[in-house]
């Protein structure tokens, strides 16, 4: 299948602004200003990836921007080139509101060169004031150390902010115009599967698409899928997908013939759901031209329970495989698919994937285990409490931790670094267990694996609060290993046929991060996403672009990077965030 970034590349626009006075001033600055722009291009085009692994493309204005005519010409070029975010650079004074980017939907940053020859910092402050006054928040980038005028290097602190802005801004621009596909409706009364169209449209710039789950059944019955791919997938499944324990009573266990039919159905469901999301040109050759188009869905959710799963196989295999980076077609970017149609967890999976290129772990925030409780149940006492993350459906197999870095340590690689060997190791450490009959009367196959310990993770979640809107929660921490016997005892107290991640957040000793229990107690929903790596600072920057306040995080204050306009809303960072987001409102309202 074709990825979105291949068909519709979002580019980053670089705007070199300059003092417009001719006959000496502008002429003396042209080379230095354009050199700054090119240095930013070099940085971004060697560090920022699209989710298919190719490096981002940048576009520089045709000339330095000294006034409104050149600013307008730059804006026209950027529209033609599909620019989705802009970075303005300058070493000098320029004419503030005459040279700024006026697009209200475009994330924007300004790098003012810290040098003594010309007042780049003065322009930076003036332009930021103009942005704030016009209601167009922009990010301020200014190095801590004074540079020489002819210095072509980008200081490390400036690099960090440029890259953080670019990752978040590219995410914002990529979501705009895409769809969230809701397959089915509300699962078991879960609030986040009541898809909030206003949130998607006004905060993310996305549209909502809907199909009933019977559309999957229709395609199963009428053979609206590529049979060649089905045959390939079934052969691959037979080779690489190992069945696990069956905890069902004898009368609820399936015969070998029934299991073979079950495998065939869940494989077909996977292919059909992917086709619903992004289309499949092969369907047009089967005289299904409408179905071949798909729904332009960058993310989707499958209701499953209970209207489907009381009668038909659950979506666990489909969800786990689509969210992973390796299947019968080889290595590829994940397709974001949330179990139980949890649209808000789907958005967090989307955020994590867009920022990192990695597959994501979807999980229940299932149980807080205190050291005392663990000791009472197992006889072994850990140093701290921990949280059990576990869910039957959407956790990508990459979450096993069987990708290995150069030193052999467990990791989750971005899709473009994943190898077939990585994918096969993930499969080798996964078992496919028959679904528990009491939960899934229609059967199914659930992935069962254990995430390796010692991996950095960022747990995050968006919740909707009536009267306030969306808020984001973030908790950075690590997966941990438990003694095998302890893991077995604790895991069997819940559902041992599902994937498990044991997680410990980084504590600050204050508020929601006073202790591990406080993190669990302050979590706002039954689900979360675990993204490999500590990406909380990137999530905070992204949330500010979308006007989503962050209600809980354990990120150091020095790493918080938001638009400079936030400084006008008081001195406490959390209060600033809430007031600024409320004042400016959703990005696309």
Could you explain the architecture of this structure?
The chain has 589 residues and is an alpha/beta fold. It has two domains: 11-175, Rossmann fold (3-Layer(aba) Sandwich); 179-584, L-fucose/L-arabinose isomerase, C-terminal (L-fucose Isomerase, Chain A, domain 3). 37% of the residues lie in helices and 19% in strands. The protein contains 20 helices and 23 strands. The strands form six sheets. Strands 13-14-21-20-19-22 form a six-stranded antiparallel barrel, surrounded by four helices. A five-stranded parallel sheet has the order 2-1-3-4-5, with helices on both faces. Helix 6 (156-175) packs across helix 14 and helix 6 packs across helix 19. It is globular. It starts with a helix and ends in a 5-residue tail after the last helix. Mean pLDDT is 95; it is low at 1-6.
């Amino acid at each position: 299948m074709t990825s979105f970034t291949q068909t519709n590349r979002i580019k980053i626009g670089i705007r070199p602004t300059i003092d417009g006075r001719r006959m000496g001033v502008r002429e003396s600055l042209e080379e230095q200003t354009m050199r700054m722009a090119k240095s930013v291009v070099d940085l971004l085009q060697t560090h920022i990836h699209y989710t298919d692994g190719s490096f981002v493309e940048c576009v520089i204005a045709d000339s330095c921007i000294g006034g409104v005519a050149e600013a307008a010409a730059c804006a026209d070029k950027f529209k033609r080139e599909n620019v989705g975010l802009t970075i303005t650079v300058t070493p000098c004074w320029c004419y503030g509101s005459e040279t700024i980017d006026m697009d209200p939907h475009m994330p924007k940053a300004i790098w003012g060169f810290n040098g003594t020859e010309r007042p780049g910092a003065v322009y930076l402050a003036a332009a930021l004031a103009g942005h704030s006054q016009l209601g167009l928040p922009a990010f301020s980038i200014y190095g801590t150390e004074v540079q020489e005028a002819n210095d072509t290097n980008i200081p490390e602190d400036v690099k960090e902010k440029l890259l953080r802005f670019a990752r978040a801004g590219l995410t914002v621009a990529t979501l705009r115009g895409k769809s969230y596909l809701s397959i089915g409706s509300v699962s078991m009364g879960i609030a986040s599967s009541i898809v909030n169209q206003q949130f998607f449209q006004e905060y993310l710039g996305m549209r909502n698409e809907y199909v009933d789950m019977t559309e999957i059944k229709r395609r199963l019955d009428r053979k609206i899928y590529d049979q060649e791919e089905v045959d390939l997938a079934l052969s691959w499944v037979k080779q690489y997908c190992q069945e696990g324990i069956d905890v069902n009573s004898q009368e609820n266990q399936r015969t070998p013939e029934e299991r073979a039919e079950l495998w065939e159905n869940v494989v077909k469901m996977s292919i059909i759901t992917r086709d619903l999301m992004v289309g499949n040109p092969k369907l047009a050759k089967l005289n299904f031209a409408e179905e071949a188009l798909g729904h332009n869905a960058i993310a989707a959710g499958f209701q499953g329970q209970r209207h489907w799963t009381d009668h038909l196989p659950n979506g666990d295999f489909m969800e786990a495989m689509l969210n992973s980076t390796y299947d019968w077609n080889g290595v590829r970017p994940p397709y974001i698919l949330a179990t139980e149609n949890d649209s808000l967890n789907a958005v967090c999976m989307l955020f994590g994937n867009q920022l990192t290129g990695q597959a994501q772990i979807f999980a229940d925030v299932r149980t807080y285990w205190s050291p005392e409780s663990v000791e009472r149940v197992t006889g072994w006492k850990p140093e701290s409490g921990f949280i059990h993350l576990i869910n039957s459906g959407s956790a990508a197999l990459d979450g096993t931790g069987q990708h290995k870095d150069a030193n052999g340590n467990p990791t989750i690689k971005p899709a473009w670094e994943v190898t077939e060997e990585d994918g096969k190791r993930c499969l080798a450490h996964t078992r496919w267990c028959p679904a528990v009959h009491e939960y899934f009367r229609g059967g199914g196959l659930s992935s069962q694996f254990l995430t390796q310990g010692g991996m950095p993770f960022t747990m995050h979640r968006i919740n909707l609060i009536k009267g306030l809107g969306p808020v984001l929660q973030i908790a950075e921490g690590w997966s941990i290993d438990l003694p095998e016997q302890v893991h077995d005892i604790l895991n069997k107290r819940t559902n041992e046929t599902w994937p498990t991640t044991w997680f410990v957040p980084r504590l600050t000793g204050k508020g929601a991060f006073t202790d591990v229990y406080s993190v669990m107690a302050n979590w706002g929903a039954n689900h979360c996403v675990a993204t490999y790596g500590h990406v909380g600072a990137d999530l905070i920057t992204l949330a500010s672009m979308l006007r989503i306040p962050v209600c809980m995080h354990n990120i150091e204050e020095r790493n918080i990077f938001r638009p400079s306009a936030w400084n006008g809303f008081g001195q406490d960072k959390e209060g600033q965030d809430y007031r600024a987001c409320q004042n400016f409102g959703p990005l696309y309202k």
